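Ticket #4471: structure export looks truncated?
Reporter: QA, pipeline team
Priority: medium

Steps to reproduce: submit the single chain below to the structure queue and open the exported record.
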Amino acid sequence: MRIVTDWDDVPSQPHVVTIGNFDGVHRGHRHLLETVRNHAIHHGVASLVITFDPLPAEVLAPDHAPLRLTLTEQRLRLLLACGIDRILLIRFDRQFASLTPREFIDLLVAATHPTEIIVGDDFHFGRGRSGNPSVLRELASEFGFSVSVVTRVEDGSTPISSTRIRQAITEGNVSLAAELLGRPHALVGEIVAGSGRGSQLGFPTANLAVFDRLLPPAHGIYAAVAWTRQTWYPALAYIGDRPTFPGAGYAVETYLLAESVPNLRGETLTIYFIDRLRPDRAFTNVQELIDQMQQDEQQARQRLESVMSSWPPPLVAALHAPLEGVHLTHGSPERA
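Actual output as written to the record:
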């Protein structure tokens, strides 16, 4: 199997190995992964990614852990789409976090037989993040593998990082996030019952209960593409507190721009954010809101016409590929 969840299940053969969270599997990650794949091909061995679930910060600092760019299963699909031969998905817990850098490498070497370990220049490992590329090189000379350190990819003059992408998303700049990710940012969730207000306004929406600590964009109206029941839909997405209706509360809603839509309650829906059309705002009356929503719909249809003609892009298609070797459920990050 290409995905394993136990050190003992890694085939006893040489590997070129990399290690990391890889949340989002953004352009910088993919540059590193391409290096891993190419070195493995050159040396005639398999490539292996070691990654974690839950993510370390969700265990070590749960109150301060950043929201995710991808579900674990999305992360695995994107890693495989980079041409990686095998993934070891490790359950990260406090016991694992207590390993010293030497103890971690001892475990890694025994299980994966690395000929080479390739990491980014900001890589840390072991108890208290005490290991770094210099420590890794010291251990490499003892354990008998080589080390390569890959410099971070820059967009403009700033390195591409998950932190930078999260900032763009929280600011509503989903087009910049898409540029750095190499694909649009997405939310995934279950369609749940809403108040029915959208239908009353002439814009029936699917209300989304978002899965697994995924990071929502800033409040506002977005041109989007939705996936549910094996079908793509151009869509208008809303994120916000519905200020025109005091007390209505926070919602993630999607209006599918289709002639007819089946009853989708209980279905899984994925929303890909293409462009932010405007921020959220309160309207003085319902008719003013309806007029604005009609303008939003027209603008979204115009924006999405060219997008839908070549949809889905390759990395989005990869996110909906079958996933072998691991069963995951949504909910608490402690699930795996």
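Status: closed, not a bug. The export was complete when the record was re-opened. Leaving a note from the reviewer for reference: Residues 162-318 form a domain with the Elongation Factor Tu (Ef-tu); domain 3 fold (CATH 2.40.30.30).
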